[in-house]
Amino acid sequence: MYACYYCSRAYKKPGMAQWEKLMQLESVYLKQVGELYDGDSFPMDVRHYLAHWIEGQDWEHAAQDYDIAMVLFQVLLENLDIQYSRFVQQGEPFLLQHNICRFKHNFQRYQEEPYTLASIILWFLRKEEEIVHSAELAEQVQLLQVQQNPMETDSQWNIECKMTDLKKKVQSMLSGVGLLLDDAEEVLFVLVREELVQWQRRHQKACIGAPDSTCLDQLEKWFTTEAESLFQVCKFLKLEELMGKVTYEHDPLKTQKPALQKRVDSLLNCLLKSFRPDHQQ
What we know:
α11 (about 215-235) runs antiparallel to α13 (about 250-275). By secondary structure, this protein is mostly helical. The chain folds into two domains: about 1-150, Transcription Factor, Stat-4; about 155-280, Glutathione S-transferase Yfyf (Class Pi), Chain A, domain 2 (Up-down Bundle), CATH 1.20.1050.20. It contains 14 helices and no strands. The chain has helices at about 1-5, 20-25, 25-35, 45-50, 50-55, 60, 65-90, 95-105, 115-145, 150-205, 215-235, 240-245, 250-275, 275-280.
């Protein structure tokens, strides 16, 4: 798993001790380090106590060369023996002594394939390097934010003003839709309650021989214009698929659309049901 990954990248030995840099990072990055070493592939204790030696070796070369990998493998085991002896001499807790012995025992499984262990160590070093790089980049960004010059501040203020104006126009546009529906509702009321009622009366009279005109042309024109206007509003509001992809917190369209859509549907329903004079008579 590891060997293929390393063939395409060259690991650069760090200047200042990389492990020391990691230990000085903020808690959010230390948490990433903890998660990195959460498994059993390469113990954090070994990384910590042999940090200087580990960072001084060419693990990339070892991951591709059996002889070099075997030499580093043997030296690693020797260093673990030395660390164990140091723990004993310094009277360190038995748990530390036991863990070092256990780690050495676990590493024995790479006796036949030491380059695999070299690849694993290289992988961890690169992951550490990524964490350090992320932390340094975040620090640089924060420093740039603190050092903003007056021109940048003025530019930001101008952009904020434009954004505020843009939000107001969006809100005004939605308010305009509401006003448009008010007008449409008023027109529909006149058409249904007055014009259509008058036409129905003329139609009834014509059925018994009165010379009243029952031409529907003008009425159809008015109803058609009303319907076209409502369908245009409906198209504007039918943005559910797009809205689901680009909506954001406090989106005015998302919050106001249901009420506007309900009004449009109600008006269209009323219009379509009302203008069927030929079937009603």
